[in-house]
Amino acid sequence: MTELFRARLARGERLFALAACVLRTPEVVLVARSAGFDLLLIDLEHTPITIGEAGNLAVAARTAGFPALIRVGGPHHPDLARALDVGAEGVVVPHVDTPEEAARIVDLCRFAPVGRRSLPAPLPQFGYRMPPAPRFMAEAEAATVIIPMIESCAGLEAAEAIAATPGLDALMVGANDLAADLGLPGRLDHPEVQAAFARVAAAARAHGLRFAVIGVPEPLLGTLGFGLGASLVVATNDINLLVDGGTALAERLKALVA
């Protein structure tokens, strides 16, 4: 049996994600796997992807034995638990500013006694043949990953309290939004931004959570990611992968005939 993604995250395995932002067909799952990524992050926050399309990708990922998380629109997004119902192994939730919002996420996404998630219809996690409720609740609980994102001054000030919320697996820094909210847009190399990353990483570590980052350029991953103990790195997205790879190829080809 394939090891649970949650277990790999919990033991601190270094995991690299490709975000699906534009490609909405199952091919992106195999592209991510073949390229050597460890998981797919299906993004509903900044993209035209619908919950139905996200579900198709999540089911394709399960069929391929490849982990997939869904990033919803925020802590009050209507599709929080639905992201799990359609097949994702977990949710990434942006703009979490308070421990109350973190608790709300856990309440909606975890079954009792930790939360109050509603018992769903047949799930793709079980091949749509549901076992007895106690078994599927226990197995779903063991596999479900919940990662709130810290990307504002308010979230930064509450990082320790958010990390103390039972039922979380990691804290993720949204690099660009956090820098912008600190009044330093695009200045990820600024000491104040670096101190903010370090504070979130320390809060996660103090409460037994993993540290994750998204939006950190490759040259800064040592400082803002690995140097702070990041286990999960969202490395790039599908469209950047296409554009960056295409640009590099075009430049090489043009250099041959220059």
Automatic annotation (TrEMBL):
It comes from the Bacteria. One of its GO terms (cellular component) is cytoplasm. The keyword Signal does not apply. Keywords: Lyase, Metal-binding. One of its GO terms (molecular function) is aldehyde-lyase activity. It holds the Pfam family HpcH_HpaI. Residues 25-209 form the HpcH/HpaI aldolase/citrate lyase domain. Belongs to the HpcH/HpaI aldolase family. This is 2-keto-3-deoxy-L-rhamnonate aldolase RhmA. It comes from Muricoccus pecuniae. The lineage of its organism: Bacteria, Pseudomonadati, Pseudomonadota, Alphaproteobacteria, Acetobacterales.
